Amino acid sequence: MLSMESDDExxxxxxSLGSLFGETKFAHGDTRKLFPYEISNTEVKVKDNxxxxxxxxxxxxxxxxxxxxxxxxxxxxxxxxxxxxINVKGKKVLELGAGAGLPxxxxxxxxxxxxxxxxxxxxxxxxxxxFNKKKNIPENLANKITVVGHAWGKNIEQLKSTGKEFxxxxxxxxxxxxxxxxxxxxxxxxxxxxxxxxxxxxxVPPTVYFFCGIHTGFITVDxxxxxxxxxxxKWDLENVYKIVEDSLSL
Length: 250
Description:
Protein name: Protein N-terminal and lysine N-methyltransferase EFM7
Distance between the termini: 36 Å
CATH class: Alpha Beta
Strand content: 15-25%
Largest sheet: 5 strands, parallel
InterPro entries: Methyltransf_16 (IPR019410), SAM-dependent_MTases_sf (IPR029063)
Helix content: 25-40%
Organism: Neocallimastix californiae
Number of domains: 1
GO cellular component, one term: cytoplasm
Structural class: alpha/beta
CATH superfamily: Vaccinia Virus protein VP39
CATH architecture: 3-Layer(aba) Sandwich
Pfam families: Methyltransf_16 (PF10294)
CATH topology: Rossmann fold
Strand order of the largest sheet: 7-6-5-8-9
Radius of gyration: 17 Å
């Protein structure tokens, strides 16, 4: 488990994110101010075409979960949902390890049937997701997105929209969720129980989308997919992206 002993050590760690692995900075944000995300292509419009995301101030708490950043993987996933590369329209969507919940918010604004946005059941993290929902989702859509605290591998019955019974999901979103190998089995337990097995004729089958930054490590990613295949999952590698100068244009 990672722990940071002082604010100075956390500052050093945060400053290093831009130079690790020789990449463009792959994590963004500051818990002291809102992170702006400009929308270009959602079905439902919001004021100034911008979402404002609060990051959970988990310093001294569940800091090792790294939910207090906006990761490039989350930004890229959100952009693909905006552009219908990941088509959520009319779909039941679950996000695991959501952090600030950006892909879930974009899914809701792009006419998903319903969205459940979840992260570790820490009070600060869950309340932060509730804040971002209230801050960014119009009132007439608020009943389409539900915030839930969920520890992977535990009771999946809690992963449901408010006032409804649990039903498996058409789409599950996972951005930067594979970097903890000791959690792979628990994550797969949740996925195996939450992904629908029903497919409409000529439609995209129920799908889990993984977006992983290079900081996760190829060995760690390979370990997860080998383990998942032994449980009956089948995967396709769609694309590999290199983000240059914070550009997320597709």
